[in-house]
Amino acid sequence: IRIWELVPPSQVAYTALEEVEGLQNGRGEESMPGSTPAPEHNDNSDIVNLLSYPSEGHQLVGALPFNDTLVVFSDTSGVPLEGDSFDDFGFSEFITLSVGLANKQAIVKSRHGLFFISDGHKVFQAPLSAPVVELSSGIRGDIKDLDSSLPMWLAVFDFADRSWLSVTYTDTGSTKRHRLLDLETRQWFKFTDFAPTPVIEYKPVAGKKVLLGATASTIYVLDDPQTAYTASSGNVPVSKFKQVLLDLGDPSRFKVWKQFLIHTDATPTVVYWFDPFDPDSPGSSEALTMVAKTNLAQLLEGSFQAGGSAYGKRCLIEVTLPSVAAAKKVQGMEVYAEA
Q1: Where is this region: Disordered (predicted)?
Q2: Do residues 319 and 330 make contact, with C-beta atoms less than 8 angstroms apart?
Q3: DSSP state, 44?
Q4: Contacts of 69 (CB under 8 A, 6+ apart)
Q5: Domain covering 236-339, topology
Q6: What distance, in Å, lies between the first and last C-alpha atoms of the chain?
Q7: How would you write 268-310 as a 3-class SS string?
Q8: What is the pTM of this model?
Q9: Mean pLDDT across the chain, nearest whole number?
Q10: How confident is the model at residue 64, as a pLDDT?
């Protein structure tokens, strides 16, 4: 068992249980080689458990254990620290992540790899076996204004049919922001009109997980896929889903938007915007008339062209499920467009 500590500006120190106890030259109960306070000056150690970051001159920001390594980040790069004991600890000579970390809280690990917010205000995925992948191209307009001097939280909700990355931060205007990325479809979305800080995965009972969010005075259950909690009121509240601007991989090209399909056992209200200046305050919306497809009552279809022109570079869609006695679900959504 070791405790690792970043030593500004560019070194990493670690405790040394095996070395202290094996050589009897330090305080074993503290696992720290070196001198103890007076009057015990007889246990000085000649072992210095200090490693220098390979890219000197950069400020170390944070570190996280991952896949039997300790990934250490500066403001410009990230390097795994490898080894099994004092004799072979060292920074990798073969793997270097080419982007730095925004702050020490802006990183989380999962089975998908590491996720982190860079010093350049972008969200990246780092599997450590391939180059880092930017995930935030669809929300660059939002995340560019994050205030990296304030806390930010990343969490992965990977349970049942959910596989989401949650990103919570505060922008330079002191407004809290919350965005979610579906790790399977690679689409960003958000809980409309709600920006909790922070958001975490929590297991209230064995075998069930929920996604919790908090404001200054209240903790909210944001997602409960297997009903770990019982609703306190008679009806499930109104639920809203709004994906972050949909550009189909090309935000610069105009598209003809065709159809929107949703698979749900609810009766949703669907509205949309083309190229809103501010996605958080998009202004007046257009409504989609949703009609059940033949012989498929739960598969609803709406045409963007029913009201006339359907041209735009990016589309913002909001789905609202009404307040009902029994919870309803959205099983999937599809959007069709032509470039």
Answers
A1: 24-45
A2: yes
A3: -
A4: 80, 81, 82, 92, 128
A5: Jelly Rolls (2.60.120)
A6: 56
A7: CEEEEEECCCCCCCCCCCEEECCEEECCEEEEEEEEHHHHCCC
A8: 0.70
A9: 82
A10: 92
